[in-house]
Amino acid sequence: MKRFSLLLALLLVLTGCADSSTGRPNPFQYKGSYVGDNSAVIGIAQNLPMHDCYKSIELQTKKRPYGLTVRYDDPELERLEQERLAIRNAATYFTLVKNAEIVRFAFPNRTYAFSRPEMEAWLGIDFSTIKWEKDLVLRLDEKIGNEAQTEDYFKRI
Q1: Which whole number is the average pLDDT over 45-71?
Q2: Residues 136/121, Cβ–Cβ less than 8 Å
Q3: Which DSSP string do the residues of 76-103 spell out, in sequence order?
């Protein structure tokens, strides 16, 4: 009985470790954060697509418009896929960071800049009303799943 209890306890501990080490944290754990919250903004960057080529973040917190610039190494993606991921990441920042008004993604050969009002108008949503990641993902998939709409967005900005 003593061996069984020890084995059961060990199994429970190992199971808990396996779950926490294999699952990446959800960026929505940072919902409600602010541009000035450095650890939250970095935590989001480390959990979004292209996190493996993330280098650094600059925060613009002194005066409005508040924003951030995320610097990346070259993700070695096709232009359209890089644009789609940039849209997805910008929408996630606007959803999670209450006072983010401008989000920039700087790559070695290109920089993408997004503003909250332009993106909300294009998507037809108010980011402050998004409560769940799945709601944001569904809306983004609807828009950026269509190559013509993605191209249209980048022509507008």
Answers
A1: 95
A2: no
A3: ---HHHHHHHHHHHHHHHHHHBTT--EE
